[in-house]
Amino acid sequence: MLHMHVTSWILGIILLLVAFFLYKQGNEKGAKIVHMILRLMYLFIIFTGGYLLFDVYLANFQMPLGAEAITKGLAGIWLIGAMEMVLTKTKKGKPATSAWVQFAIAFILVLVLGYIRLPLSF
Q1: How many domains does the chain have?
Q2: Which residues of the chain have pLDDT under 70?
Q3: Which residues of 89-107 are buried (b: 16+ CB within 10 A; e: fewer)?
Q4: Which SS3 state, helix, strand or coil, does residue 119 take?
Q5: In the predicted model, what is the mean pLDDT of the chain?
Q6: Residue 103 vs residues 31, 60, 72, 96, 107: alpha-carbon distances, Å
Q7: What angle do CA 84, 12, 99 make, to 5 degrees?
Q8: Which of 14, 61, 96, 108 is most buried by its number of CB atoms within 10 A?
Q9: 122 in any annotated domain
Q10: What span, in angstroms and rounded, lies between the C-alpha atoms of 77 and 86?
């Protein structure tokens, strides 16, 4: 399940960039299609992340790892929200700087917790 989760995140980041550049180029129809596929990818990310959180970390809850896993889950949801804000603001033609800053902070937090702190990594 870990590989499915990581793969869905990688596809999500790629789809975010594709949709962002399509919106920037003015290709509204193509960007909307990619944006909807990205929203479907959000569901895969949330499902696989929830499975990992409940099955692996919260099944035998130990204080430091369980709290960090919950924090990583919340940061992952924050990251999905930031991705959606980036695309929505870009679609409307508004400046998306604050959404990109949130994306960067949440992305760094998720990477640090996922690959440095929590034991279930590659």
Answers
A1: 1
A2: 120-122
A3: bbbeeeebeebbebbeebb
A4: coil
A5: 92
A6: 19, 31, 14, 10, 6
A7: 30
A8: 96
A9: no
A10: 14
**How far apart are alpha carbons 6 and 88 in whole angstroms?**
24
Residue-range definition of the domain harbouring residue 34: 2-117
Distance between CA 46 and CA 76 in Å, rounded? Answer: 8
Any domain includes 11: yes
- What is the Cα–Cα distance from 47 to 7, expressed in whole angstroms? 13
Place of tokens 């990310």: 45
Q: How many helices (H) and strands (E) does the chain have?
A: 4, 0
Q: What is the pTM of this model?
A: 0.90
Q: Where are the beta strands (DSSP E) in the chain?
A: none
- Widest CA span of the chain, in angstroms? 50
Structure tokens, 2: 């870990």
In one letter, which amino acid is 12?
Answer: G
Residue 29, CA atoms < 13 Å, CB-side half-sphere: 0
Taking the C-alpha atoms of residue 34 and residue 105, their distance in angstroms, rounded to an integer, is 24
Question: pLDDT tens digits for 23-57?
Answer: 999 999 999 999 999 999 999 999 999 998 888 77
